[in-house]
């Protein structure tokens, strides 16, 4: 099935964001693990795996629409030097990704590509859930301080 060129281009932009996310969260997971922050390691690692599955779904959709998935491009990784900086980088990334996903969903709606829209809405929901988790972690740091927060994540 031949897909709309604008939709294919947007799906590739979302794919780029997912591929970038995989790398960012995987590196963060390994940094947390190295620092002994097991809970944060587990959360970031599971997020990178979820992003791989989302990327896989996007690749399959692009191929179905007779497009060519672009796996060669990544955006800038937002890697911090400490936990609070890493969480802020993740938050900034998620915020930009949510904007992109909303634009992609709107485009799919106008082009009547409801299957792509549904896929993107599922990804949007999962990203919003992760954004809520990051904001909760930042709130905890503000309430109990970074030292107590880090101790609770070991």
TrEMBL record:
**Record GO cellular component, one term:** cytosol
User: Which top-level enzyme class is recorded in the Swiss-Prot or TrEMBL entry?
Assistant: oxidoreductase
Q: What terms describe the molecular function in GO for this protein?
A: ferric iron binding; ferroxidase activity; heme binding
Enzyme Commission number, as recorded:
1.16.3.1
Q: Which Gene3D superfamilies match?
A: 1.20.1260.10
> Which positions in this protein are listed as binding Fe cation 1?
18, 127
Q: What does this protein do?
A: Iron-storage protein, whose ferroxidase center binds Fe(2+), oxidizes it using dioxygen to Fe(3+), and participates in the subsequent Fe(3+) oxide mineral core formation within the central cavity of the BFR protein shell.
Known catalytic reactions: Fe(2+)(in) = Fe(2+)(out); 4 Fe(2+) + O2 + 4 H(+) = 4 Fe(3+) + 2 H2O
Asked whether the UniProt record includes Amino-acid biosynthesis among its keywords, one would answer: no
Tell me the ranges covered by the Ferritin-like diiron domain, including all copies: 1-145
Binding sites annotated in the UniProt record for Fe cation 2: 94, 127, 130
CDD domains named in the record: Bacterioferritin
Q: What is this protein called?
A: Bacterioferritin
GO BP annotations listed: intracellular iron ion homeostasis; iron ion transport
InterPro entries from the UniProt entry? Bacterioferritin, Ferritin-like, Ferritin-like_diiron, Ferritin-like_SF, Ferritin_DPS_dom
Any Pfam family hit: Ferritin
To which protein family does this belong?
Answer: Belongs to the bacterioferritin family.
Cofactor(s) recorded for this entry are: heme b
Which of UniProt's keywords are assigned here? Heme, Iron, Iron storage, Metal-binding
The residues that hold heme b are: 52
